[in-house]
Amino acid sequence: MSCLQSVLSVMFTELLLFFQTDDEEESFVLEDPSLLNIDNIDTHSYDTSSLASSDSGDRTHLKRKKKLPDFFSLHGSVVRLSLLKGISAQIVSAAVSAASSLIAVGTSHGLALIFDPNQALRLCLGSTAVGAQYGAISALSINNDCSRLLCGFAKGQITMWDLANGKLLRSITDAHPPGTAILHIKFTDDPTLAICNDSGGSVFELSFKRVMGVRTCESRCLFSGSKGEVCCIEPLHAKTELRDHPITQYSLLAMASLTKILVIGLKPSLKVWMTFPYGRMDPSSVPLLAWHFVAIQNSVNPMLAFCRGDVVHFLLVKRDDSGAIHVTKQKQLHLRYDLINFTWINSRTVVLLDSVEKLHVIDRQTQEELETIEISEVQLVYNSSHFKSLATGGNVSQALALVGEKACYQSISSCGGQIFYLGTKSVHVMMIRSWRERVDHLLKQDCLTEALALAWSFHEGKAKAVVGLSGDVSKRKAVIADRMVEILFHYADRTLKKCPDQGKIQVMEQHFQDMVPVIVDYCLLLQRTDLLFSQIYDKLSENSVAKGVFLECLEPYILSDKLMGMTAQVMKDLLLHYQDKNLMEDMEACIVHMDITSLDIQQVVHLCWENHLYDAMIYVYNSGMNDFISPMEKLFKVIAPPLNAGKSLTGTEYFNWFLSFYHSCCLAGRAYPLGDIPEDLVPLVKNQVFEFLIRLHSAEASADEEVYPYVRTLLHFDTREFLNVLALTFEDFKNDKQAVEYQQRIVDILLKVMVENSDFTPSQVGCLFTFLARQLAKPNNTLFVNRTLFDQVLEFLCSPDDDSRHSERQQVLLELLQAGGVVQFEENRLIPMAEKAEFYQICEFMYEREHLYDKIIDCYLRDPVRKEEVFNYIHNILSIPGYSAKEKQSVWQKAMKHIEELLLLSPNKAADLIATHFNDQIEGIIKNLQDMLQISPCVTEKFIELLCHYSPDQVLETLQVLEFYRLEETIQITQKHLLHEASSYLLEKKGDIHGAFLVMLEDIEDTLVKTIALCQRNSHSLNQQQRESLTMQVLNNMAAFIALPSILQRILQDPVYGRGKLGEIQGLVLGMLDTFNYEQTLLETTTNLLNHDLHWSLCNLRASITRGLNPKQDYCCICLQQYKRRQEMAGEIIVFSCGHLYHSLCLLSKECGIETKGQMRWTCYKCNSSNKGGKLSENFSELKKGNGASLAQVRFMGGSVPDSESLLDSQQIQAFDQLCRLYRGTSRLALLTELSRTHGGEKHGLLNVSQGDPALNSVFQNENFQLHLAPPPLTEE
Questions:
Q1: What percentage of the chain has pLDDT greater than the value 70?
Q2: Cα separation, 1124 vs 136, whole angstroms
Q3: Element (H or E) spanning 334, and its range?
Q4: Which residues contact residue 696 at a Cβ distance below 8 angstroms, ignoring those fewer than 6 apart?
Q5: I need a labelling partner for 351 at 20 to 30 A (CA). Which of 85, 286, 809, 1100 fits?
Q6: CA-CA distance, 1074 to 1245, in Å (whole number)?
Q7: Spatial distance between the Cα atoms of 474 and 478, rounded to a whole number of angstroms
Q8: Which ranges does the UniProt record give for the WD repeats (predicted)?
Q9: Which residue has the higher pLDDT, 94 or 626?
């Protein structure tokens, strides 16, 4: 028994699952071919997450996790994973494969079991004897019509079976090299053509033929494993309706090797259409291939998905008119995990399996992850043993064996929208849930809100992976809407059922506030208000709290105009509920958004009057009865008594605003408070409102009522707004004769009410005349206003005796002028009156009209409110183009005239202005302002003292800027306030450096003491290196300004170091320091002497080589011709320092010149030649060595001078060498060294140095010793 269990366990790890693919997918089309009898399917779904399942070899590394709680995303549960009980019970020692109408099972004993869709065993192909010879079945494939089955074995053999009668048709042993396992074997769409891939990485084409009744098989190698091992192949399969697609005639085959992807065409001849290298990746990742036809841009073409690792590439394959195939890259899918399987469910949805056995359902177009499922309980079977070719001795490469560790190609396959997974003890099938199943699944989980949201996404066509919907859009929406209605009824029942019976009323309200709005929302989205206000409302009315919440939750939909009407009963209940809850403002906002036909007008009007809901009342009058006057009459009755009694408008302010706004809407043709008045009623409404406004008295006027009460009331509340409304109305009535009469009538009434009444403020009167000025300034004006009224207004506004509301009166007059009222006044009278009233903005307005920009500067300077704006004004005039030069000059002169005043007004702005526009006049300005800039030192010192008290941080910066203060007094002030840094600055400025140092030392002494104490306290806890680091920081800071020898000498002179071992060498160290100081002084002196000598020598050299030479005669000393007369050829004139002159050609003829390093060196013929033989040659030898007796200058006879160079030429080098020989002797450094040696030995007596022979060792005993005294340096006059 134990032996049998051992065999069975091995077989479980080698189970293989194969399915014939028959993809079928269209958007919103039911995709459920019912491959299996669902009666034998365990519908338990694996919607949780756990870790990987067992491998075909070692399971010790795998861990199990408990199921996590189920979760639902926006898409709900998209797929269902179920156990195939019927097959799983019969394959205790078998492997599984399936086709569209059959399920084939391959076992490790070489048997092939065939099951029907009901999971009943139909055929058992092969025998255990064959299995012992061929090994386990490693690959299976069924052709399109389910008539043939190909079996690949672990030892390399291939068999073909007739699935109709179970007869063996072919046994193929020579299709590929022996000793390799069959990894893949796949039929193409051509039933006579199949492809196999072995563990050697080679791919072969199998062609089946029948000649003279004999079945044969011809094999052709498509790809050799020696060029790169192929570990995955995938032929393109087309569905029946796509068999005529033009690309199917090529019989495309995709192959994935360890380094690249290849797409080849098998027909009509073998051709490689595409290669695609992987790039860098994990060598253990599994190459994956999958074909599917997709619809893009109104055409259906195959798309190849391939990946290796965590990036999925999509390639769209098309055929053009010429017959060529083109491959186009599509958008890549980047993942956070490595894949071991890729499967298309349909053209929009793919299922990915990662390396930890998690399934990821992905929408290809949006790349959104719809769902994640763990399938660790499946215990997926891996094909590692076949990739390692264990049955034939394991003769495979390490790279292929590494890939095989995660290979599960033969354990997963798809068929008709279903995916089958082979486990060690079971077979599972995964399929996409239909839309109804997905909704019902959420309902089973009691997730009603999520179910409604998912159903609505189906309704709007926004859901992903949709299956089970067919027909046109309207039909699909109707089906989904019916299902949503059922859910809503269930939701309402559940809401009432789950209501807490006990507890606080707030708990019940919160429960219904969470639930009821969902029902209302989806009823309105579905436009099923009939259900909302009948059956659902009746259900919720059973609970008073639910009813109240329902009525209140209608408000946002009413205000957003999503709910315009409701039944009379619901409207009545709504009004009563809001009245009981005292939510009158909310009720009024709802009434004005409701359809008037759904309101009980009598009830609403009565309710509105009782609760002062004037907006709702006007809405009912206007919309329900087209009455726009009655509301105004009633409202004026409310506010008339307090106004007549002279009471404050505080209590009636709302009514005044309300009336103003209502009149604005009526006169502008807008409905109050929302919408527009019907176009055919607009003229009538405007006329009615005008007639109402110009009534002499109200309907029930008292004896003391003033005339035109309605106009007077509106003007008192908001004059500007009322006049603006009239202006807009006048624009609309410009072509209406009756309206023109109304306009004149209104204007006359306004003048009568406001001019003859002293109750109105200057601002209100100004608003009236501004309104009139704008109307009179229009080109098509028909109004008439007496001009004397404008003069009266001008005198009223410019009255110098009235100081009240000065800025208001000025602003009113300015608006009046800007509105066109300037034509109503005499300018010669207006400007003096404005100046007298100090209306400087009015003056500016008038001066700007006359382009008198310089006078505007006076307006700014006299206006206390706008003084500082003068700087921006001057800058703009002088900078911005558009002003004439004369205008800019006048402004410039005016600014110069007032420069002192500007400086006093704002020194910073004045300085910026001067630097920008008066840069040439700065010296003159400063000179003129010197008297003003003189400040008494007492004032400056007082300022500094105040600064020390209130802003001590700014004292030092201020002292560095100020000049007019006395040092002694200021030092006393800063010392009094303990401002050490400022005191140190003043002492330094005074010249007392020591005092400044002591002040700063006081400031840091306390800190220094504390720092030293800190080091002392912690020295025992620090190691030697840390203590040295702290000490060296102090010494380094000292060494930056004090010489280290001085520090060392100061330390050694301390009496503390005079005892002990250090005291023994104290004298020696001090002596070394003295010697160092002496030698340092001697070295500095020597360096100065050498530098002085070098400077003097170079000055002499420069003077000698730059001094001009004066020839003794004007003729050549060789040819005796004047240098100017020899014109036969251009040449050079050579002049030597001895005064002799030669032609260069003459010197060359006498061999007095030699070329050295590209330059000519010359020697004087007369000075260096002699009748004695041999001297000339000696001179030439010296010339070659660079020695010469005299300097030479070269000039061109033609007058052109060659370009000078910064380097010394040959003559200058010759002169420098001569100078060096002249002063050659014992160096001063040697003299000083000798002197210091003697002097040091006598002074210190540290070493008894033997001097040796004086004649040999002393430079002073040398017979050639000469002392050259340096002449005093030359000074330039």
A1: 72
A2: 119
A3: strand 333-334
A4: 707, 708
A5: 85
A6: 13
A7: 6
A8: 130-171
A9: 626
CA angle, 656 as apex, 655 and 657 as ends, to 5°?
90
Per-residue pLDDT, averaged over 123-143, amounts to 87
Tell me how far apart the alpha carbons of residues 120 and 143 are, in angstroms, rounded to a whole number.
21
With the C-alpha atoms ordered 1024, 1027, 1032, 1035, is the resulting torsion angle positive or negative? negative
The answer to whether 183 and 137 have CB atoms below 8 angstroms apart is: no
Confidence class of residue 761 from pLDDT cuts 50, 70 and 90?
Answer: confident
How confident is the model over 531-585, as pLDDT tens digits? Answer: 888 888 888 888 888 888 888 888 888 888 888 788 878 888 888 888 888 888 8
Q: Where are the alpha helices (DSSP H) in 1122-1162?
A: 1144-1149
CA 494 – CA 813 distance, rounded (Å): 72
CA distance 525 to 532: 11
CB atoms within 10 A of CB 298: 5
Q: Give just the sign of the alpha carbon dihedral 236, 242, 247, 251.
A: positive
567 and 532 Cβ atoms separated by less than 8 Å: no
The pTM of the full predicted model, rounded to 2 decimals, is 0.54
In this structure, what token pair is assigned to residue 32? 């459920």
More confident: 674 or 962:
962
The string of DSSP codes covering 713-740 is HHHHH-HHHHHHHHHHHHHHTTT-HHHH
**In whole angstroms, what is the distance from residue 140 CA to residue 1131 CA?**
107
Reference 1228, options 1016, 1049, 1083; nearest CA is 1083
Q: Is residue 734 a contact partner of residue 743, using CB atoms and an 8 Å limit?
A: no
Instruction: Write the CB contacts of 980 (distance below 8 Å, at least 6 apart in sequence).
Output: 999, 1000, 1002, 1003
Q: Which residues of 536-568 are buried (b: 16+ CB within 10 A; e: fewer)?
A: bbebbeebebbbbbbbbbbbebbeeeebeebee
**Strand, helix or coil at 1108?**
coil
**Those residues with Cβ within 8 angstroms of residue 1187's Cβ, 6 or more apart along the chain or in another chain:** 1214, 1217, 1218, 1221
Strand order in the sheet with 349-354: 339-344, 349-354, 358-363, 368-374
Query: Residue 275 and residue 296: Cα distance in Å, rounded?
Result: 23
**CA dihedral sign of residues 665, 667, 671, 672:** positive
Q: Angle, nearest 10°, between helix axes 568-580 and 584-591?
A: 150
d(CA 1124, CA 1130): 11
- 314 neighbors 301 (Cβ within 8 angstroms): no
What order do you get walking across the sheet with 1192-1196 strand by strand?
1141-1143, 1132-1136, 1192-1196
Q: What phi and psi values does residue 555 have, to the nearest 5 degrees? A: -60, -50
- At 475, list the tokens: 């039909």
The whole-chain average pLDDT of the chain stands at 76
**C-alpha–C-alpha distance, residues 1195 and 1211, integer Å:** 13
Summarize pLDDT for 167-198 with one digit per residue, the tens: 999 999 888 888 889 999 999 999 899 999 99
Rounded distance between C-alpha atoms, residue 898 and residue 883, angstroms:
21
Task: Please report, to the nearest 10 degrees, the dihedral formed by the alpha carbons of residues 528, 532, 536, 542 taken in order.
Answer: -170
Do the beta carbons of residue 137 and residue 107 sit within 8 Å? yes
pLDDT of residue 675: 62
How many Cβ atoms sit within 10 Å of the Cβ of residue 86?
21
Mean pLDDT, to the nearest integer, of 735-739? 63
pLDDT tens, residue by residue, 640-679: 555 555 554 444 444 444 555 555 566 555 666 666 666 6
52's CB contacts (< 8 A; 6+ apart) are 62, 355, 356, 357, 376, 380
- Given a contact cutoff of 8 angstroms between Cβ atoms, the answer to whether 97 and 16 are in contact is yes
Rounded to whole angstroms, the Cα distance separating 739 from 872 reads 48
1052 contacts: CB under 8 Å, gap ≥ 6: 1066, 1069, 1070, 1073
Q: Choose among 431, 433, 434: nearest CA to 421.
A: 431
